[in-house]
Amino acid sequence: MLRWFLVSLLSLTVLLLALFGAGWIWIDHRDLAAFATPRLEKKLGRTVHIGALHVHPGAWLTIDADDISIANIASGTRPQMMTLGHLGAQIRLTSLIWGPPEARNIVISKFSGLFERTPAHLPNWRFGPHQNEPRAPLTPEEQAKADTPPDLGNAPGLRNATILDSDVTYRSANGASYRTTLEKVEFASTSDSSPFTMTLTGAYNDTPVSISAEMEPINDLRKTPARPYATTAHVTSGDMTSDFTGTLTDPVNFEGVEGHTTVTTPTSDTLFSVAGIKGDHAPVKLTLSGDFSHSGDDWHFTKAHGTIQTSTMESGDFTLIEGSHGKPDDVTAKTGFGCLDINGLMPILAPSGAKGSKKGPSTLHADLLLITPPDPDPLVHFELTARQLIYNTLDFSNLRIQGAQTPNRIEIPLLRLDYIGASLSADGRIEADGTSSRVSADVALTHGDIDRLRRVAGLAPVPVKGSLNFRITASSKNVHTLNEAISRADMTAAVSMEKGEIAKEIVEAASMDLRLLFRHAKGVTPITCLLGVLQMHQGIGTVIPLRLRTGAGTIAAKANFDLRRKWLDLVFASRPFSTSFFALDVPVRVSGPFDAPTLSLAKWSKVGRDMLADSNAVTNLPPALQGFAASNACARPTR
């Protein structure tokens, strides 16, 4: 009986070994493509093609697959979502039993993946029976579950892997494509407890990129997300270098990222290329460093500092919120500069072909392009401060500006800066006007010292001292740049002075005081008030009223001018009730080119007489200026 049992047991063992050996030989020589294809098609709900699939048993199970493709969704932009030339891999047989899996000699070649959203915002990476049906937005609970990092507790040990001649493309619903070319990618580790390394040579949107990274051992990867996974990376692209040191809680999806990064480039050619900016641009030297983080739809670059050309950024906080369900991204930027040199930044701010975009920074012709796209992506909200601002030949200080870009509109609710002791504040807006833009602004300037203003303007000394206050409303239509908007502006402005002084001889000369024939008036007389109102249309304007009231007399004037022709017509007269007994109070007209006007008596011509009548009229002001002018004593007509 015992002998029979032993013989039977031995026979069964031999039979099992024979069956196992036969199965081993059968699998080793069998093409499993026909076996795997229908099962994969049923699971994915897509047409699948596998040219060949072989499994070779052994201590290391070897897998070889060739000519694999998975069909795209019906509304996709190409027939196949993914294609693969060859896949080779070895898996330790015992690791499939005892885990976690261990793989080596992985080779992926000629992989091409297209991940896209259709115009109806259907993602092609959704598989299953309802993949072509629109879905309602996820509930908060569903979104939280979708955002949960994957469990990497059984992440396979990877000794070495290589990806060759491959590419991955993401295509958005509006048709924008972002293509990553993987010329050669290598992963390596000697064991699950040794550092895990990666090197990559490829391109992003045809811009060459090389990356080298050293990560923590795979044993530490399996502890995520409970324990962040540390990595360091070095990126080079052309003359740009970037370094990152930080951690990730979801390395597979590049989520939960926190770390410090630096970017350095002497020309910014790579950044222009990645941003899709083509054409001939002057080199832009850039050095920035700061803290980078990414989680879900939120991207942050904080505590940023560095230099951009000759401008020094002392603080920067940038936030990008990815748009969902066809909505644009939203960018918020808060930056603080020590010196902000617009002339040096013109290669960034001006497109190819615009002023200031030629080789070499523009120092005298800086100009900002005024663009109001109908569907901006991203939407932009910004706040910028600078202790010093340089624009063309102007040098400002203490700049603060807030703004927002929304569809067909850029809103500037706050602009403040100081200039040669004067304080300027403004608000404005840029709106779409067909293929161009429409600009409007309200400006206030206070404490404008007359002597400092005339020196900046290049004018000769004037016998008047004091501070001026301005209120300006301006608008421009059918413009494309800031300088164009300024030169073509329609403007109404009021200038006021309530404290100052003027040389007595000027007042007596204006009133034709006979005493000037026998003596030279000395000293100054206080200015009780000064008020001027300017209205200008594309360089042609009128100043009315223009009144100056002093202790020695009151002067009223009107001026017409044309800045393009450099032509002036000015009538002024002292008011009889305000001057001395010896004043003739004869109205005077100054008319002609700026550099050679002629002098005559105003009452000798009808134009002069009409201008005299107008000089004492009350001008209709826009609501924004009425309160400012009404508070000035010179707003009241003189007798």
UniProtKB/TrEMBL annotation:
Q: Which residues form the signal peptide?
A: none
One of the GO BP terms on file = regulation of protein targeting to membrane
GO CC entries: plasma membrane
The segments labelled Disordered in the record are 125-159
Family matches, as InterPro entries: AsmA-related
Q: Which domain of life is it from?
A: Bacteria
Matches recorded under PANTHER family? DUF748 DOMAIN-CONTAINING PROTEIN, PROTEIN ASMA
The name on file for this protein is: AsmA-like C-terminal domain-containing protein
The organism named in the record is Gluconobacter albidus
